[in-house]
């Protein structure tokens, strides 16, 4: 049976994430193969409000898929949080005769799509795109693997200089209120301590360990930005238990979000882009395209919002290597 879908709109929203362009390429390729027109909506929900659309060509996207960031641009849209903004977005959908929307972003983006679905019947599918990896219903989100690889490279570099000077380094990584980037980069770099938002106890392990630190080697602490203590507070607690150490702070910041997507993020983008487009063609809506146990999976978006980074296995690893 032929699909009713003739025109799909696609947007990227929230923080950019490496691999978003690969997902857009896969959507463009799949749509094209099914004779469906694809329009890019620029700057996330801002473009939906401002009627800022551009045609997307799969051949051009093929040449751009290896780039970091998002060629569609992205935004955190205050205007879309209001009924007025959402109604304007609805007008754009009607004026351009969009039959469906694919939205790539984090849980905020999905909340935005759920808000839109309350005033419109437009079918939509979400693709999880955020370096934070904090979305349930998928093993990984787009951009997480690349961000962790970038953080690992930076922390390895920091270790070189830390070992040369026998210094303590506090390295702050991104992840908002989730510890995935901190845990994966910290364990991969042999960190001496990892402070995650999900635990209040980890600071005590760190203080106990650093009390006995004799400044004969490097001591690397990876701190998640969403931890209950900030780097300055942790630094002053450390100095109180061990006044003689030489301590430096490094905040990795947005460097973690840029750069070319890893092969894993490109593959994830390709798989999720194809899955999302086929889902739209098959009449699905309100779902997120993800991978669970490495299998393509569609889950209702309402059920996939947030996930916690510390499960039993991770806790064991943290205790073994950082406890
Ligand atoms: N409850 C909501 N109602 C309407 N729109 C929303 C809602 N929550 C979020 N949005 C829209 O979604 C946009 C993206 O959300 P947010 O800034 O939280 O990023 P995100 O999608 O979670 O991505 P990241 O994890 O990379 O930060 C917001 O800027 C806003 O425009
Ligand atoms: O670029 P912005 O808007 O400052 O957002 C930073 C936040 O976005 C993320 O990079 C992705 O959600 C978080 O890790 C970080 O806290």
Which helices and strands, and how do they pair?
Layout: E1 7-12, H1 20-33, E2 37-41, H2 45-50, E3 53-55, H3 58-64, H4 83-95, E4 100-105, H5 107-119, E5 124-128, H6 144-165, E6 168-173, H7 180-188, E7 193-195, H8 202-211, E8 219-224, H9 231-241, E9 247-251, H10 263-281, E10 287-292, E11 295-300, H11 312-322
Question: How would you sum up this structure, described in words?
Answer:
- This protein has 323 residues and is α/β, with parallel strands linked by helices.
- It contains eleven helices and eleven strands.
- The strands form two sheets. A seven-stranded mixed beta sheet has the order 3-2-1-4-5-10-11, sandwiched between helices. It has a four-stranded parallel beta sheet with strand order 7-8-6-9, sandwiched between helices.
- Helix 8 (202-211) packs parallel to helix 9 (231-241).
- The mean pLDDT is 96.
- The structure holds adenosine-5'-triphosphate and 6-O-phosphono-beta-D-fructofuranose.
- Adenosine-5'-triphosphate is lined by residues 13-15, 45, 76-77, 80-81, 105-109, 111-112, 115, 130, 132.
- Its EC number is 2.7.1.11.
- One of its GO terms (cellular component) is 6-phosphofructokinase complex.
- Pathway: Carbohydrate degradation; glycolysis; D-glyceraldehyde 3-phosphate and glycerone phosphate from D-glucose: step 3/4.
- Its cofactor is Mg(2+).
